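Let us practice reading a record.
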Amino acid sequence: MTEDELINPGSGRGPARLAVTGVTQPPPAAASTENRAGESLGPAEGRDVRRFWAAYAVSALGSGVGSGALPLVAVLVVHASDWQVSLLAVLGGLAGVAVAVPLGPFVEFHRKLPAMIAADLIRFVALASVPAAAWLGILDYALLCAVAVVQTAATIVSNAASNPYLKTLVPAPDRARVNGRLESTTWTASALGPPVGGLLVSATSPVASLLIDAVSYLAAALGWTRIRYREAAPPAPEHRRWLADTVAGWHYILAHPILKRLFGNALLFGGLIMASSPLIAVYLLRDLGFSALEYGIALGAPCAAGTLGSLLAPMVIRRAGLGRTLLYTGAARCLWMAPILLAPPTTAGLVLIIAADSTLLLFAGIFNPAFATYRMNAVADTHLSRVVGAWAMTSKLVQPVCIAAAGLLAAATSLRTAIAVLAALLLACAVLLPWTALHRRPAPSAGTGCEGDFLR
């Protein structure tokens, strides 16, 4: 992916925030996003979007390389027991959310770029402490738990800050295109990073892949500092009560008729996909008898479809409209778990599994940037950080519950039965989408100026 594929600053479309022909004065403060619905990216903004994308790409690739490294360190270096490895994942999620909850209002009511830089620096220090402690011979299980908590909390804070910052940086007409490029970067990093991390673990130790992940956060933090775009002043708190400001993200979601249904759909879809992953792994390796290589191919090959979907997303949104893209691709991504149960233990069965997963990820690759764009447009600037944070925190809480429930169901019945139940529930996810939005046009919100674009 080239920088020109992300944004072409030479297109000359729309008013530029700063005419850049040798001008060296600092850029003016950003206009409120509510007043930018008709603008397009200018040359200066295009350069800053490319810097944003470059920092994001470095971080995403590092996270791909370091994917799963922390539990590997627990097993191979610290020699943690099975229950300790499970506790590491649960503690990282639950305690990380508990730490992140009170930070939501702080992120909302302060400038976002410093929060993004701080979150990446904190993750760098946390992850780098593991190889440093291993080198000093003092690495233990307690440190891994602390790192897991800090990493989860900092990731939630980073997402809560980067989404509103991107909204101020990118005018509404260009958001689907930029979100599509970021999504394709995520899929590419997911496809390329784990194999590289696996090679590092095989050649050295899982500590090396954690070090790569840590360095990527440092590089991303340095990348954010290169962005010249200056934010507008952050919103002022609307309450004097800490609790009201803290839960405002959830209140906003549940009070919004479309976001509320998308929220339910996203929680159930994400929980079911996460719950199915370990069950499908056991089903393919044990029940169908596929080799580790065949399983790796079935796991990695569909990522290309996710990348393709994210690249197609801006065109699909432009032709079908944002609302119809959300509804139809959101429903289509729910159809493809059941075919796995029809696969025989042959090469044809492996092809069927890859095809089903590829189709799911293709539609997910289109849906995700469409959803990111809609949420960015629909949520008022005064609440976007807390809405994104509430979304991420709730997902972190729901997914372990779904994984545990699926495991209990498989133990009580059978593996095939548990996967079949998950597939049926996944089909039901489509019902939670805001289908009535197809039959009426939402009134523009005072906080967005863009909500009426939902069906266009």
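A brief commentary: Residues 294 and 350 are 8 Å apart (CA to CA).
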